[in-house]
Design goal:
The structure is a single chain. This protein folds into two domains: 86 residues, Orthogonal Bundle (DNA polymerase, domain 1), CATH 1.10.150; 94 residues, no CATH class. The protein is 40% helix and 6% strand. The strands form two sheets. The protein has a three-stranded antiparallel beta sheet with strand order 1-2-5. It is mainly alpha-helical and 247 residues long. The chain is elongated, with a radius of gyration of 29 Å. The longest helix has 20 residues.
Amino acid sequence: MKLGRCGPACAPGRVAKAEPLGADAGPRRREAPRLIDPDAGRVLFGNYARDWIEERPNLRPKTSQLYLYLVRSHLVPAFSARAMADIREPDVRRWRKNLLDAQVSAVTLAKAYRLLKAICNTAVDDGLIRRNPCRIKGAGQEKSPERPVLTVPQVNALADAVPDRYRALVLLTVFGSLRWGELAALRRPGIDFQARTVRISRQLSEQRGGGFTFGPPKSEARLPDCCHSCGDHTGPCLAHRDLRRAG
């Protein structure tokens, strides 16, 4: 059956979809493409990545050290001499495959990819590039293997084996789920012996270039409004006279 000029929409039994009328009628408008200064994208990736880290003074020392390591060890070798505008999707895919072939751990590779993507996102915002070349689905997800954990009898055996002054350190690490930096920053005012709770308000972090400094805890949930109950395992340890005398 010949449908004629009208096309399939006019065939018997079919109803052509009417275009909406009113203020929106007429040709559909497309957003104007974003204008990019071609010279702006000539900045070298190595310089831009280092500046990206330096322009974030609120990064925690360990995070800053991690970013510098990832840039130095995994990003700079591939992109240092490349202009930001010259880094394309195939370049990122090839870079990732080369790291996989070099047996870089999946966790490190995911961190490096996320950092590269964050740097390129800023480059988009700065008008250096039109879109982010990091477009590999799932490449930034890290799946760490489950770590073996001690049983409760093993933890108690370890606490019994160390000197008494370190017993609370062992028990709080396990049963209080505290990070090492939080334990190192913990002082007597942060411990309520009667309620058997520990208040986490700061952590001790290693500074870039050496030394240590106190700072806020990594998670906002550990700010002074939140206390960690020590429970039956750690409570008696907090009442130990040596811990009470500790500064």
